[in-house]
From TrEMBL:
Full protein name: Large ribosomal subunit protein bL25
UniProt family annotation: Belongs to the bacterial ribosomal protein bL25 family. CTC subfamily.
Keywords per UniProt: Ribonucleoprotein, Ribosomal protein, RNA-binding, rRNA-binding
Source organism superkingdom: Bacteria
Cellular component, GO, one term: ribosome
Gene name of this polypeptide: rplY
The Large ribosomal subunit protein bL25 L25 domain, residue ranges: 5-89
Subunit structure of this chain's protein: Part of the 50S ribosomal subunit; part of the 5S rRNA/L5/L18/L25 subcomplex. Contacts the 5S rRNA. Binds to the 5S rRNA independently of L5 and L18.
Sequence ranges assigned to domain Large ribosomal subunit protein bL25 beta in this UniProt record: 97-184
Length: 207
């Protein structure tokens, strides 16, 4: 994805406030050289932030007529208004190694034995994975094929295909669960027992 940024010459709380009133978002680009102060059109940025790829892939930033590859690193929203307050990007090149969370795209679960035959539902235990790789190898998403899922057997990190050069960060967990089939609940029908014959006689005798 590509976006246009403009050089920001003024900084400070007052200058940032005036930028926001003018429909701009103050930001910074750091890494691989001197930090650069930037400003971006708010509406364009607000709509870009709604797209998954803007958060998880390399971005082409046009600034002063040249294009630089960057990654979105952080952004701040207004506490209650739909307004972006500030945004941070990181410059990257072919040697930049990064650690970043990428979304998972699940496919094929409707064709799995667990769903098709055993009527299970699939619980997506995690929807993103943290990975370490070179910036140029960063995938926009990781595809998870659930077509081989069977009842009673979960899909783990070690079961999925990860592109070469990418390592999943598990934070000490040896083999985390990605997705697991959940068996359908069987509702128990409780039938009230009819009163015994002796109980009926006892009730008649009391009248």
């Amino acid at each position: 994805m590509k976006f246009v940024a403009f050089e920001r010459k003024l900084q400070g709380t007052g200058a940032s406030r005036r930028l926001r009133v003018a429909g701009k978002v103050p930001g910074i680009v750091y890494g691989a050289g001197e930090p650069a102060l930037i400003e971006i059109d708010h509406n364009a940025l607000y709509h870009a932030l709604k797209k998954e790829a803007f958060h998880s892939s390399l971005l082409d930033m046009e600034l002063n007529g040249s294009v630089t590859q960057v990654l979105l690193r952080d952004f701040q929203m207004h506490p209650y208004k739909p307004q972006v307050q500030h945004i941070d990007f990181q410059r990257v090149d072919g040697t930049t190694k990064i650690t970043k969370k990428v979304p998972l795209h699940f496919i094929g679960e409707e064709n799995s034995v667990a769903v098709k035959t055993d009527k299970c539902t699939v619980n997506h235990v995690v929807t993103e994975l943290e990975i370490t790789c070179l910036a140029q190898q960063l995938p926009e998403f990781i595809e998870i094929d659930l077509s081989g899922l069977t009842k009673g057997h979960s899909l783990h990190v070690n079961d999925i295909k990860i592109p070469a050069g990418i390592r999943v960060v598990t934070h000490g967990k040896p083999n985390p669960v990605i997705a697991t089939p959940v068996e359908p609940k069987v509702e128990e029908i409780v039938v009230a027992a009819a009163p015994a014959a002796d109980d009926k006689k006892g009730k008649k005798g009391k009248k």
